[in-house]
TrEMBL record:
<dbReference type="GO" id="GO:0005886">
    <property type="term" value="C:plasma membrane"/>
</dbReference>
<feature type="transmembrane region" description="Helical">
    <location>
        <begin position="50"/>
        <end position="69"/>
    </location>
</feature>
<feature type="domain" description="VTT">
    <location>
        <begin position="64"/>
        <end position="180"/>
    </location>
</feature>
<dbReference type="Pfam" id="PF09335">
    <property type="entry name" value="VTT_dom"/>
</dbReference>
<feature type="transmembrane region" description="Helical">
    <location>
        <begin position="6"/>
        <end position="23"/>
    </location>
</feature>
<comment type="similarity">
    <text>Belongs to the TVP38/TMEM64 family.</text>
</comment>
<keyword id="KW-0472">Membrane</keyword>
<keyword id="KW-0812">Transmembrane</keyword>
<feature type="transmembrane region" description="Helical">
    <location>
        <begin position="75"/>
        <end position="100"/>
    </location>
</feature>
<protein>
    <recommendedName>
        <fullName>TVP38/TMEM64 family membrane protein</fullName>
    </recommendedName>
</protein>
<dbReference type="InterPro" id="IPR015414">
    <property type="entry name" value="TMEM64"/>
</dbReference>
<keyword id="KW-1133">Transmembrane helix</keyword>
<feature type="transmembrane region" description="Helical">
    <location>
        <begin position="158"/>
        <end position="178"/>
    </location>
</feature>
<feature type="transmembrane region" description="Helical">
    <location>
        <begin position="190"/>
        <end position="208"/>
    </location>
</feature>
<keyword id="KW-1003">Cell membrane</keyword>
<dbReference type="InterPro" id="IPR032816">
    <property type="entry name" value="VTT_dom"/>
</dbReference>
Length: 231
């Protein structure tokens, strides 16, 4: 695997931890926390949870990294619930993009994403659930482009969406852990998040190398993972 892939992920973890620390210790951070998270999400029951899911779904649907939503979920809800709500928000965003692409995008998007969709079809054709899960476990690639390509491909919604949710969980756990670590044992939890990210990333790259059988989801993904075009 290209070391830059892991370094980018580690950089995101550390930067989010520093971002959270700054927000916690600065007047700006206190103001923003009270104005939005505390006043609209945290301890606001089902209304706060639904608001978070709606905002998270919208932002991930238009391309905001789902890791940031996971970080905010960890801060707002704690580790376990943050992981759940972060993954659900990413899934809802995935559904929005997938449905939009399938209903309206075949003509509009085929010119730009047609080749990617054909690669996606070939990659997941025989085992749609397991190969979609493999894509989601990779530490590289674009979440929103994958959703758009899936929408104009032939994959059925149920295996794609269910595998996406399961595949979202590991990285969501990592970044929810960073978010929940702002207040208590931040250094330890960030360290644990880094270890979990490395394990998840290396496992995803290994499974891709082991099970792709000469197929490719995207040339940029192959390059980032150090895969040859013709293994």
């Amino acid at each position: 695997m290209n070391p830059r892939v892991l370094l980018k992920g580690l950089g995101l973890i550390v930067s989010l931890a520093l971002f959270g620390y700054f927000f916690k210790t600065s007047d700006l951070g206190n103001s923003i926390n009270e104005a939005w998270i505390d006043n609209h999400i945290r301890d606001h029951g089902i209304e706060g949870e639904l608001l978070f899911l709606a905002m998270g779904a919208l932002f991930t649907a238009i391309g905001l990294p789902r890791q940031i939503i996971a970080f905010l979920a960890g801060y707002a809800f704690s580790l376990v619930l943050g992981t759940l709500f972060g993954a659900l928000a990413a899934l809802l965003g995935c559904i929005l993009t997938f449905v939009y692409s399938r209903l309206f995008g075949k003509g509009l998007l085929s010119a730009r994403l047609g080749a990617r969709a054909k690669r996606f079809d070939a990659f997941i054709h025989d085992h749609p659930f397991s190969m979609t899960l493999l894509i989601r476990l990779l530490p590289v690639g674009s979440n929103v482009l994958t959703n758009l390509a899936a929408g104009i491909s032939s994959i059925r919604p149920v295996p794609f969406l269910s595998a996406s949710f399961v595949g979202y969980l590991p990285q969501t756990l990592v970044f929810a852990l960073v978010g929940s670590g702002i207040n208590v044992a931040a250094t330890l939890k960030v360290g644990m998040a880094i270890v979990l990210f490395l394990i998840s990333g290396v496992l995803g790259a290994y499974l891709y190398h082991r099970h792709r059988h000469g197929l490719s989801i995207d040339e940029s993904v192959d390059a980032a993972l150090g895969e040859s075009q013709h293994p």
